Amino acid sequence: MGEFRPVSDVLAYLAGSWRVERAVRDLASGAAGHFTGTTVFGPLEDTGPGPLQEPGLLHQESGTFIWQGTPRSAERTLRFLPGQRPGTADVRFSDGRPFHDLDLSSGRYVADHPCSADLYRGEFTVLDEHHWRTVWCVAGPAKDLVLTTDYTRQDTDHTLQDTDYGP
């Protein structure tokens, strides 16, 4: 699986339900954790005046995070808006703050997100129509982490148009 698969429309590719497996390693302490859950990329909700549905996707992730043997419920919500170029995305936190851009037209993308004195560097790779991965390396005075997340499409009847997913 060393080959990346180009995606011409990132929002069309991500739409649907994905099984999530995430390994978390603290490089400073050696501690490790694991998240298992689901991410659903669905239509954005009504955000007030104007059209009832904003273009883009609402990313809702939920599951169980086990850290040092202790399981906890975990969830997060992100907004994937159409990017500046066709087929790309502008990823934002649920409150609208910018997170990072996303362009999978080559099947691989690296994004940076500064957070206080730490830097989050994410590598996104598309493995095939039903599998993609993110690897976030977090470095700085407060954190030294690697988070590797594998996504597997749950709704395998989801079909993409030729324009959504490259050969």
Q: What would the keywords be for this entry?
A:
167 residues, mainly beta, ten-stranded antiparallel beta sheet, 1 helix, 3% helix, 57% strand, globular
Terminus-to-terminus distance = 15 Å
What structural class is derived from the secondary structure elements? mainly beta
Largest sheet: 10 strands, antiparallel
**What is the β-strand count?**
10
Residue runs with pLDDT of under 50 for 5 or more positions? none
Discrete helix count: 1
Whole-number mean pLDDT: 90
The outline comes out as: globular
Strand order in the largest sheet: 6-5-4-3-2-1-10-9-8-7
Instruction: Report the sheet-strand fraction.
Output: over 45%
Helical content class: under 10%
Radius of gyration: 16 Å
Helix/strand order: HEEEEEEEEEE
Structure description:
A ten-stranded antiparallel β-sheet has the order 6-5-4-3-2-1-10-9-8-7. The model has no long low-confidence stretch (mean pLDDT 90). By secondary structure, the protein is mainly beta. It has one helix and ten strands, in the order H-E-E-E-E-E-E-E-E-E-E. Strand 8 and strand 9 form a beta hairpin.
